Amino acid sequence: MKGIYRIETRGARSGNTIALGNLRVTVIAPALIRLEWSEKGIFTDKATQKIWNRDLGAVEFIRKDYDDECEIGTSRLTIRCRKVGDGGNVSLRSAVEVIIKNPVGTRTWRHGDKTETLKGTARTLDNADGAIPLGEGIISRSGIAILDDSRSCLINDDGTISAREEKNCTDVYLFAYGHDYKDALRDFLLITGRPPLLPRWALGNWWSRYHRYTQEEYLALMDEFARRKIPLSVAMIDMDWHITKIDSSIGTGWTGYTWNRELFPDPKQFLSELHKRNLTVSLNIHPAEGVGRHEEDYEAMRKSLKRADDGETIPFDMTSPDFVEAYFSCLHHPKEKDGVDFWWIDWQQGEKTKLADLDPLWLLNHYHFLDNKKSGKDALILSRYSGEGSHRYPVGFSGDTVISWKSLDFQPFFTATASNIGYCWWSHDIGGHMLGTYDEELQVRWVQLGVFSPIMRLHSSSSEFNHKEPWLFGAGESAAITGFLRMRHALIPYLNTMNVRFSRDLVPPIRPLYHEFPEENEAYDFPNEYFFGTELIACPITSPAKKDLRMASVRAWIPEGSYTDIFTGMTYEGKKTVVMYRPLESFPLLLKAGGILPLESEVFVSLGAEGKFVQEDCGAGEGSDFYRTEFGISGEGVFFIRAPKGKSAEYYIHFLNCDEVLSAESEICGQKRPSDFRYDPLMRKASVRVSVPASGEAAIRLSTRKNEELGRKMVLSRCFSLLDKAEIDFVRKERLFSAVKKGGDTASVCGEILAEETDCDFVSALFERICSR
After folding, report:
1. CB of 583 closer than 8 Å to CB of 767
2. What angle is formed at CA 502 by the lines to CA 496 and CA 504, rounded to 5 degrees?
3. Among candidates 600, 154, 188, which has minimal Cα distance to 358?
4. Residue 562 has pLDDT above 80, yes or no
């Protein structure tokens, strides 16, 4: 096969493999071993669909041989192996015992023992209306997880795929990391293959809709987004870009490679116009039915494959190297030359190929991604998950979900938990795909989740009533959706930094709370709450608002330290559980003390602790120039910026969790000067504008003081705002606000409210505003 379809792999490190008859042990890391069992004594050193690298460097271990046993010990585990000669009749379970030593406790493992993990992800959410079962991950509260690679096919040096020589072999990897979850995930990503760097444009808003657009209609829609200043970065065209009405003797029309020129009379010009609008373009494909005689590229495919001129459909077969090369060179490359940037692989047609246990979805993902990398191009595909190792082929398409609150409620957990198997770039049909009922509040909350997800892609079914254009909703809902879509693009500098860190440092852009707090029980009890990058905690709202309160709520756990919501300015102290109440236009997004959030032209910094953040901008993608901008906050509260070489910047710095500001002073390249500032007492936020020359430095120092009276006014204002919008009788409002105004310590005020109110939501919402800073 062509060189682009070959991959770099590394076998086991010399000296780390011990063969004992039917058994072979490979020590990969102190807490990671490979166990192979073969009745024929046949082992493999080739890369597999899942594992590409078995050399993580030198590992210290001790081997002790006895008459009938071999003992292999690392700092984390001991492997006891029965020696079995030719014709031995034992199994892997009876031949190997592993004693694992970690802070979780010493325990023994044998092959076949059940291991409960914290789960991983699933192939698709097609037709899901709420929760679905998930596959296993590689981290576990018990400290043990297994990755079974026995059914994987082999990847040959020339890029072809072949079956294993022995079908009934056992090939497993034991992860014995205890609660060192981040180390387990790092080593998993190292042996399966590093996640690639996404092109920067992938982090913006994607537009997609299953709809028979015309060329003129689609371009007009893109112009309407631009006119309304709603940013987009990716334009996707679903299957109606190609001919779908064909002779039934050929197929159903789901598969197609020929532009429908009734809808798109000039495809090349259409793609060019999208590029002029700074949009990256993707087309949808369903390749299962092969290439029929009606296709424009049929003759090219037939000649490339040296098939008879009989008009028969060319069957889809990604196990054939010849088909793979013709599939790309005849069907895809010409369209890419015309302007298609990447492909949406919409595979829903089974899991079998000519090779046993080889999933066609995996083949499509593998070869499409490698092909998309040709000529150093920024590589991307959109496709469903095809098993462990799929993080090498971003981005994930989670499928066609039912539009419901249950579906929304499952997606935060589903997205964050996928990090347990390294699959960190899920893209959902934001707003849901099909069925369900029209619910504008649901749409807003789903868009909010999408903005604080790895990938933000709007999509919907072909129903003419199932639209996602923001301006087609009510005024309040439209304003909220528009504001959050704009914020998504403002977040790109932060998201791109997380993109770099995931590819380089193997730190997932989204993580469950227990990745950082493995010993805290509460970190496991809030599955919908997650770290969004290194600085933020997101607490998605996934249930409708209480009508009379006109706010929706979410129960969240605050880790140790203090965290400030960038939308409300409310600061919460850990370690505690809180219930947060938010109107439709707000989303609980918490910035830790010392945390720094760089946006396109703004920077949020939360006071109360030291912190540092290095923004890394990878430009267009892999191989492009990197710009590093350093931000930091000292223990004395001095904020500094170091601009990169060749790139100046102007920022609006927002200081959260900030006491009353008396003055502000900036120092630009050593020159001190007073600075204008704005202080918002309700948000407890001070804002200062600063310009930093290329390669220059800037520092901002605030002079502040605690103001108890200002703090009391803040509490009154927050409570008044809540009650003012509530749909309850005026006497009840006045009675509750009077209880708040009586003042006194927090306990006294809360006691007055309890004496006046029995509705738990009203009590809880007022308490949140009184008890937070």
Report:
1. no
2. 100
3. 154
4. yes
Among residues of the chain, what percentage have pLDDT more than 90?
A: 82
Q: What is the pLDDT of residue 88?
A: 55
Measured distance CA(651)–CA(668) in Å, rounded: 13
Is the overall model pTM greater than 0.90, yes or no?
yes
Full strand arrangement of the beta sheet holding 396-397: 426-427, 396-397, 382-383, 342-345, 280-285, 234-237, 205-207, 456-458
What is the residue type of 82? R
With beta carbons less than 8 A apart as the criterion, state whether 718 and 682 touch: yes
Best CA proximity match to 28, nearest among 194, 187, 193, 189: 187
Q: What is the 3-state secondary structure (H, E, C) of 56-125?
A: CCCCCCEEEECCCEEEEECCCEEEEEECCCCCCCCCHHHHEEEEECCCCCCEEECCCCCCCCCCCCCCCC
Q: How far apart are alpha carbons 369 and 378 in whole angstroms?
A: 10
Q: Which two tokens stand for residue 688?
A: 């200062």
Residue range 178-188, pLDDT digits in tens: 999 999 999 99
Distances (CA, A) of 575 to 391, 559, 572: 34, 5, 9
Name the residue with tokens 């009675």: 735
> What is the DSSP secondary-structure string of 465-502?
T----GGGS-HHHHHHHHHHHHHHHHTHHHHHHHHHHH
In the 3-class helix/strand/coil scheme, how is 226-275 assigned residue by residue?
HHCCCCCCEEEECHHHECCCCCCCCCCCCCCCCECCCCCCCHHHHHHHHH
The DSSP secondary structure of 734-750, one letter per residue, reads: HHHHHHHHT-SSHHHHH
One-letter amino acid at 339 equals: G
How big is the chain by its Cα radius of gyration, in Å? Answer: 29
- Residues 616-667: pLDDT tens digits? 986 544 444 578 899 999 988 899 999 888 778 889 999 999 999 999 999 9
Please calculate the CA angle 151-156-157 and round it to the nearest 5 degrees.
150
Return the pLDDT at 232: 98
Residue pLDDT, tens place only, 706-719: 998 898 899 999 99
